[in-house]
Amino acid sequence: MSTPRLAALDNGSHFHRRALYHPRFRRYFDQLIELRQLANTDLDDIDVLVVTDRCHPGLLCAARPRLHALLAAGKTVVAMAGTRPELWLPAVVWRDEPVNFWWWKTPGATLGLYTPTPRHTLFDHIDLDDASWHFHGVLSPPPGVSALIGFHHRDGCLLYEDCHSTPGRLIVCTLDPFYHFGSWFMPVTGRFLDGFLRYLRTLRPCQGD
């Protein structure tokens, strides 16, 4: 099968421009779409749409029919932190949590992340350290959907993949890698994006699993 065609949303912010157009990541995308044009953009040739962190939720809500049509066609939508995905995607339950930016300054501290599905192909491309900087909320996966990255000491998860709620695939996470890479701090976010975008380029249509 051919490699899936990836698109990403550009909100016009400095960090979106720096991250999306950086040669390290631009090569992964077949198309970059201005968020304000999304509601009127033909997505028929796109297999995976990455809704980058901190895209304006109001504009995403205005494009909801376009996004739902993409899922109805069996395609993939990826939603990152700061986009209020519970407003424009089906079956998303998001709980705000205080962000602990400085947990790493406590000797021996961790975010308490683990993966209940270590054989998932995502982890051929990233590991938990690559996803460990902080998080901006907690997700409750829909029935029948397993977390890919969960927490040891709290309910909910940081990232899940849902092939049940729609004919397509939803990948939802509470991370903000484009913001941090595009703002030139937190190098781990570059490692995460390298692996995560490689993973998206391997995706095939959901088989109802």
What is the fold's blueprint, element by element?
Layout: E1 6-10, H1 14-20, H2 23-26, E2 31-34, E3 48-51, H3 57-62, H4 64-72, E4 76-79, E5 94-95, E6 113-114, E7 138-139, E8 147-151, E9 157-162, E10 169-173, H5 177-182, H6 188-200
Parallel strand pairs: 1-2, 1-3, 3-4, 4-10
Antiparallel strand pairs: 5-7, 6-8, 8-9, 9-10
Any descriptors?
209 residues; alpha/beta; 8-stranded mixed beta sheet; two-stranded antiparallel sheet; 6 helices; globular
Descriptive report:
The protein is α/β, with parallel strands linked by helices and 209 residues long. The protein has 6 helices and 10 strands, in the order βααββααβββββββαα. The protein has helices at 14-20, 23-26, 57-62, 64-72, 177-182, 188-200, and strands spanning 6-10, 31-34, 48-51, 76-79, 94-95, 113-114, 138-139, 147-151, 157-162, 169-173. The protein has an 8-stranded mixed beta sheet, sandwiched between helices. Strands 5-7 form a two-stranded antiparallel ribbon. The protein is globular and about 50 Å long. The mean pLDDT is 94.
Order of helices and strands: EHHEEHHEEEEEEEHH
Query: How are the strands of the largest sheet arranged?
Result: 2-1-3-4-10-9-8-6
Structural class: alpha/beta
Number of helices, where a helix is a run of at least 4 consecutive DSSP H or I residues: 6
Runs in which pLDDT lies below 50 for 5 or more consecutive residues are none
User: How is the biggest beta sheet arranged?
Assistant: 8 strands, mixed
> How many beta-strand segments?
10
> What is the average per-residue confidence, as pLDDT, rounded to a whole number?
94
Straight-line N-to-C gap: 19 Å
Oligomer: single chain
Give the DSSP E fraction (strand runs of 2 or more residues): 15-25%
